[in-house]
What we know:
By secondary structure, the chain is mainly α. It has one domain: MetI-like (MetI-like fold). 81% of the residues lie in helices and 0% in strands. Helix 3 runs antiparallel to helix 9 (161-191) and helix 10 runs antiparallel to helix 11.
Amino acid sequence: MTAGVRYVRDRIAAVILTAVLGWMLADPDGLGRVLHLVFPDERVVLYERQTLTQMFVDHVTVAAAASGVALVIGGVLGAVLLTPLGRRFEDLVVTIADFGQTFPSVAVIALVVPAMGYGWEPVVLALVIYSILPIMLNIVAGVTSVPYDVVDAARGMGLSARQRFWHVQLPLAMPVIMGGIKNMLIINVSAATLGALVGAGGLGVPIMAGIGSFNNALVVEGALPAALLALIIDQVL
């Protein structure tokens, strides 16, 4: 499959997924009818305390906040690791980041709740800890994977180290870096459902309500929009 065909296919898939997600948010009555057809034994098929749109907005807000903070921190750490001084501490920084990812996100949230309280803050902190590593490592991997001959040619043209980084190495490294950003966004969209455990809202609310009441319709109401959003990100980036 050529790159052009793959690009068109991904964009068509993204449009279809976006249309389905938009319909779910805009037509709760229609969604309720579909869920009734799929789960005829369930008396309640939609979470009644909040609309799906409200929960979706809460979910995106938490995921976006965590992704933005992680992008800044991971970008700074990645840039530092590319400097001669930073390379001395690369193993240490990567080990610390790896250690942060070994903790389950639920455990991180549980540990910080006593200090930060309930709400979106502990969820954002847990997601940031999980998201820094892919950003940092992909920046380093992308820049260091640029062929030496290309960098040497830029040096021969008289470009300074800063100019080589901004005009040669970084543009060539962007596909690898964007891969890290895509992975981070997908992880955060999925993991943000844990916010329901500590009162942060989001699409995890109907999922937890469905699990507690053995109602699969509520689980699908929360899980399907989160899955669609993750798939849209995967197709677009």
